[in-house]
Each structure stands twice: as C-alpha cells, then as structure tokens.
Amino acid sequence: MKVVLQNLTKQFPGRGKKAEGVTAVSRFNFEIPDGKLVALLGPSGCGKSTTLNLISGLLEPTDGRIFFGEDDVTDLPPENRGVGLVFQNYALYPHLTVRQNIIFPLQNRKGADKLSRQEMNRRADEAAALVQIEGLMDRRPKELSGGQQQRVAIARALVKMPRVLLLDEPLSNLDARLRLQTREEIRRIQKQTGITTIFVTHDQEEAMSISDLIVVMKNGVVQQTGQPQEVYDHPVNEFVARFLGTPPINMFRGRVEQGRLYIGRDAVLKLAGVADQEVMVGIRPEGFLLREDGPLRCRLSRVEVMGRDISVVSSHEGAESAAIRSIIDAENRVDHQAETVRFALRPGKVHLFSRETEQALPFQLC
Ligand code: ADP
Ligand code: MG
User: Fold this and answer.
1) How far apart, in whole angstroms, are the C-alpha atoms of residue 330 and residue 363?
2) Any ligand 1 atom below 6 A from CB of 15
C-alpha cells in the first residue's frame, strides 16, 4: 500500500494570551512507495511523531491530505485506517498474558469483521512466529525483557494485518546490543510481510542501516528525501551534511577564488562552477588521504588505532571545531611524533555550502 502525503501541515495553537503557535509539520509532500521501509529522521522536536500521528489518525491535520493507495483517509478515524502502531514504551497490558495482549486488538470487532476464537489464536500464533516469541505466549509482560516486550508490541500491531505499519522510536528503550539486533529484526519482518512501514528515529545510523528511503526533517520542514547512500553522498544543505555520518563531517571556513578552493592558506582543490565567494567546506572523515606533499596542512594531535582503520586527530586554523577527525586505512604509517600531517582530499567527499543560504554549491573538478 503506497502512502501519499499532500501538503500535510499541522499547527498547534499557543497556550496563554500571547503565546505563539507551533508549526510542527509544514507542507509535507511525499509518496512512500508500496512495500518500502521509510525512516523519518531528525533531531528531537522536528515533527516526526506529529507526522506519524497524522498518518495514523490520532491527530487531525490543519491542512493537506493523506492517501493510502487511492483512498483518501484524511477524515477516517484511526481504527478504520488499517494501521499498526508501535511506540517507544511498549504499552502492554500488565495483567494480560502475551497471547491476550496480542489478541487484544482483534477482540472488539463487530459484525462481518468479527473473528472466531480459533481464528484469533491462529493469527496470534502467526504474528508471534514472525517476531519469534512463540515460546512466551503464556507469560505476563513483567516476566519479559525489554526486547521481548517490544516484540510483543510489534506482534500486536501485526495481528491486525495492517495496511501500514508505523513505528515511533521503537528501539529507544533498549540497550545498545538489543537495539542493533531488534532493528535487524524489524527489517526482516518488514521484508517478509511486505507491509509499507514508516519508522521514526533521531538516530541517523539506525535510519541509514535499515531503510529503503530516508526523510530528513528540521523544524517541521522536510530537508531532503532519498536512498540513505544518496543523501549521505549528496546532502542538499549544511544541516543534512552535519546530521548524517559518524564521526560527523568536518566543517571548515573556506573560500573559492579563481577556480581554487582555499582552506586558510592551503589551496586544496581545483574546481569549476562556483563563483568566487566565502564558503563552508564539509569533508567527510573518509575523505582525507595521507600524502607527504598533500595540500591540506594540519597540526597533528594524536593517532588512534582502531584495528581496521586509523583515526587521525588534528587541527587547522580554518576548522570549525578544535579537532578534525580523519579515518584512514590501517595500512598507512603515521609518524606519531610528527608535528604536522598533510592530506590530499577525495573530491567526492568534499562538499561546499553557501555561507548565506547554507545550501550545497555543486562544483566540477578540473
Ligand atoms: P519529534 O517527534 O520529532 O521529536 P514532535 O512531532 O513530537 O517532534 O513535535 C514537533 C513540535 O510540535 C515540537 O515543537 C513540539 O513541542 C510541538 N508539539 C507536539 N505536540 C504538541 C501538542 N500536542 N501541543 C503543542 N505543541 C506540540
Ligand atoms: Mg517523537
């Protein structure tokens, strides 16, 4: 089931006399293709949950429409939309067993939708098998780990055979290892069922690792949409460039002058297509190549060996932060005692941004 958002907007009124309202989601236009997993990604407060709640029907939009396939669902109540919802806090009924929790959403069906006890159990078994908790059906939530509780919550969302699965930061309450494992599980379940899934997270690595598409949001406004790699490789503005990647992109104050890009006094690239101006230069950690005659001359702070890679920490007067982090192959020899370290740059890992608009400035190499 594809999901289409048209001009979707949500304003919350201010509280008190002079309080200003908040535009939590502003003119969101997007088509989520059938059967894909899409992540809504952005910092806390950027409008992710509001968007999800608009899609689920828990919130009413101020403006815009929502379609599931060709159906306009904007005015349908949540229970008639066919969505499965999973939240950060698993919200299981403590006095019910796992089986009873999973069956719960099926119990109040009326008329033609009414299911027999046998059919409800069959569906619960099927959902439990998908999330691999078949052995826990008679336990109560307090007898389960956090990861198991979240699986029950996912099973409860799946048992309704939803048209769309909505997950709001479902991994936030899990510890690091379980988070990693559960996100793989969600990906597997999503592929197996083929249910169109919208996954909300503030964790860029989580979003990048499991999604077909990501939507990066800031202050209620979509910044960029695309395949994770495409967005990482071609950020449209400084915000997106900074938000994606660990370690984060290194930012420098630079300038373009007659076809050369300067960082401080160092002429680091020859390029075309950008008028002379002051720019911000973003360089991904993997964009640095150790070269004795490299044009970017940095002061070496320390070298951290991480097994597969080496992390070189250095500084430069043009850098925005005190530490520049570059990741290079462990085959490289770095003189730990040296005062300076010189880099050439991988052009595909260098991004230029306008100082005025913070938008990306595309360039060609010469
Ligand atoms: P996220 O899930 O990305 O952290 P939210 O969608 O929860 O962000 O919130 C987006 C913005 O809308 C925030 O500024 C938040 O304070 C505001 N907001 C969310 N819900 C309400 C509400 N019920 N009333 C007023 N403001 C709200
Ligand atoms: Mg939220």
Assistant:
1) 31
2) no
Which residue's alpha carbon is nearest to atom 21 within ligand 1? 12
Q: Which tens digits make up the pLDDT trace of 116-147? A: 999 999 999 999 999 899 999 999 999 999 88
Distance 48 CA to ligand 2 centre (A): 6
Do both 234 and 263 map to the same domain?
Answer: no
Q: What is this structure's pTM? A: 0.93
Q: Are residues 219 and 284 in the same domain?
A: no
Last residue of a domain, one of 214, 242, 270: 242
The residue contributing the CA closest to ligand 1 atom 1 is 45
CA 40 – ligand 2 centroid, Å: 10
**Parallel, antiparallel, or unpaired: how do β-strands 309-315 and 296-305 relate?**
antiparallel
C-alpha distances in angstroms, 39 versus 134, 167, 210, 218, 287?
28, 9, 8, 14, 26
Which of 194, 216, 242 is the C-terminal boundary of a domain? 242
Give residue for tokens 């520049």.
Answer: 324
Pairing mode, strands 164-168 and 196-201: parallel
Tell me the three state secondary structure of residue 164: strand
